[in-house]
Each structure stands twice: as C-alpha cells, then as structure tokens.
Amino acid sequence: MNIVFLLFMVYFVFFIYYLFRQIREMDEKEMEMERPTCPKWRPTEDQIRIMTNIYNYGVTHPSRAQIFEITTRIRAFGEAGEYNVQCWFSNHGNRVRRWQAELDPTGTLFSLLPLYMYGKTLTSSLSF
Amino acid sequence: MNIVFLLFMVYFVFFIYYLFRQIREMDEKEMEMERPTCPKWRPTEDQIRIMTNIYNYGVTHPSRAQIFEITTRIRAFGEAGEYNVQCWFSNHGNRVRRWQAELDPTGTLFSLLPLYMYGKTLTSSLSF
DNA sequence: TATCTATGAATGAACG
DNA sequence: CGTTCATTCATAGATA
C-alpha cells in the first residue's frame, strides 16, 4: 500500500511538473507575441477596425475633441495616445487618397464606392 | 486493486500529457495559417540595374511623374507597378543610408563617392 | 528539412 | 497635406 501510494505520488509530481512546464512555455510564447520593446505604436486589430469604420463613415479629419473621444474609446483594446490616433488618420487619409489617385489618375471613373475598397493592389486593379 | 489503480494513474498521466501536447501543436498550426499567399514583385536584374543607375545619378527620390516614367521604361524587362518602383526606391534609399551610417557613424569621413560603393562590408572598408 | 538572409511591402512618425 | 524617414512584417530563395 505504501509503495503504491509512493509511486503514485512520484507520477503525480512529474505530471504537475509537466503541466507547469507546458503552461510556462505557452506563456513565454504569448509574451513574445506582445512585442516587448516596441518604439512605435502598434494598433490592435480592433482598434484599426474601429478607426476604419469611423473613417469610412465620413469622419476623415476628426477634430481635436473627436480625436480625444476616439482615443479614450479604443483604449478599451489597448494603449493609445491622441497623437497616435491623429497620425493614423493622417496616414490613412493620405494613403487612401493616394490609392484613389493611382487607381483613377484621370478622375473619370465613376464609382459609388471609393475605388480602393475594391482592393488596393495596383496591378490587379488596373484592369478596371 | 492498488496495482490497478496505479497503472490507471500512469496511463491517465500520459493521456493528459498527450492531450496537452496535441492542443499546443494545433495552436501552433493555427498561428501559421495566415494569408492565402500574396506574391511579391520580383524585379529582374535589368530592372534593378536601371533603377540603381538612376539612383546613383542622384535621383534618390523620384517624383510621381518620374516614377511613372521609370515604371513604363522598366516594363520592357518585365511587369512592374508604380507602387513597386516607389517601394524599391524607398527601400534602397533606406538601406544605402543605413550602410553609410554603419561605415561612417560620425559622418566625418570624406569621400567623393558614397562609402558603400567600395563595398558594404564593415570590416573590409574600415581600412581606409 | 529547418534556419538564415535579402528584400518587397506596410506603416507609424516626423518634417516643411 | 504631401513627402520623407525609420522600423517592422512577411516571404522567397539561399544555405546548411
């Protein structure tokens, strides 16, 4: 009886050890996914989705107060600064406009939606 | 009875361990599953030669019209988009600047030609 | 086959 | 606002 119990305890200990090890490895991997040293702001997918929605609803140049509100709201999904949001809208607007210009240099194509919504790859979109 | 229990525990432990491992492997596979593969532009040697020549002649930041012209010209050697050319010049400029900074961190060395032209390996070029 | 490297592409940030 | 710089991501080809 004692021997059996002892062996059981030994196996139990190894089992716990293995569980511990597996969990630690998983945690380490997740930690690496979070970009330990990140000099630049890296918006999460949720944050990008929210800001893109706002942009597509027509708010392409949010005011200072709007930027403040957006920033506080997307803080629910991760760190964010007002300057970051301002930069994002600036860049997004810039690049959306550029894509538009590249897709439709003459401005003669008619579309109910901005052309970039059909895809922003140049070569594949030139067949419009 | 005890022996039976012990063996059961042993198998149980291995069973749990394998379950754990399988779950981890599945997670890793899902992580790898990302995009439906988007082919990158691969400039030919002739295209690279032309663009490098243009860059070395001083046109490090071609304008939009220049990019358009370059693109149409190098299309003689293969497919190319304007955005591809812009990316190439951006990347090339970036990397040339980085080479220069690595070769001459203080910016005090004098040379009629960019130092990286003598070779971009650090050790072999520091013997000036 | 698995890791490394080169490089096309993307994008946050800053400048004028 | 458009342009430019810097860093980072992702992947094809090289290499062991």
UniProtKB/TrEMBL annotation, chains A, B:
Metal-binding found in the keyword field: no
Family (UniProt): Belongs to the WUS homeobox family.
BP GO annotations: plant organ development
GO molecular function, one term: DNA-binding transcription factor activity
Pfam families: Homeodomain
Bilayer-spanning residue ranges: 6-23
Sorted UniProt keywords: Developmental protein, DNA-binding, Homeobox, Membrane, Nucleus, Transcription, Transcription regulation, Transmembrane, Transmembrane helix
InterPro entries reported for this sequence: HD, Homeodomain-like_sf, WUSCHEL-like
Homeobox domain mapped to chain residues: 39-97
SUPFAM superfamilies assigned: Homeodomain-like
Protein name per UniProt: Homeobox domain-containing protein
Statement: the UniProt record of this protein carries the keyword Transmembrane: yes
GO cellular component: nucleus
Organism: Vigna angularis var. angularis
Subcellular location: Nucleus
